[in-house]
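Handout, page 2. Input:
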Amino acid sequence: MKSIIIFSLIFTAMLKAEPYYRTGDYFDTDIAWDVIKKSTYSVPTDLYNIATTPFKNPLQTLGYLGIIGALVVVDKPVTTFYQESVEEPLDFYGFPTIYNSPITYGADGWLVFGTMAHYLGGFALGSEKSQVTSIMAMKAITYSYVISHLLLKAITGRNRPKDDLNNDNGSSSTDTTDPYDFGHIHSPTFESAQEGSAMPSFHVTMYFSVAKVYQEMYDNYWLPYTALAVIFASDIKGHNHWVSDMVAGGIVGTFIGTQIVSSYKSNNEDKTGFSLVPLRNGLALSYTY
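Output:
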């Protein structure tokens, strides 16, 4: 018995693997309902991780805030350069609007409806991974809207830059040439308000959160981030942000996407390996698969 216990102790291990994604029949409703249930069950973990992780990693959080703060200091010359060297050359093209709503106007609709099409394709082909990924992407869009558009914009209350900082021209009376024009705090609004709505960029938050989901799930940087760049460049002048607003949006969006994938995988990870099971007269080696 002692030799068995020693043998068990030596070979005891617990290996954590990626969730196993099934491929079922065409229009496999069993897989579809299972994906919906798992994605719904992971929502509390999503929200908990999003709310607590910045406080659990204070140095990293302060580092990102420092980057954003440093960009605010140089925002006027950097944003002026961005308007003249990036926005102006790309101002010639834009995606047509599929459906006019706050989150589907212009290029946004191509992202939203493209994600929905990915889900329907995954359902038609019985692909669990496609369905999981597209639902994660829809959650990323939703969380981005709540966190960036409804909450953070209301808290920072920063005014947007004038369309043409170099010539002091703006399309709105609330547009400014002052990068320190914060503090226009307001209640969360579902409308696309102009005053106090610069930081962070909701669109950049949304694009980066979705791109991060696809990058994590398919282990590919090129496709999701190339698609992000193409979508963002559409109607690029319409975004009307300081550069630091967009960087802040990219950081928040990447964070949201990372937490969504992490919480789903942690809730559904495949625990495979050896473990010890206590018995009345000793220990037994158990293998879980």
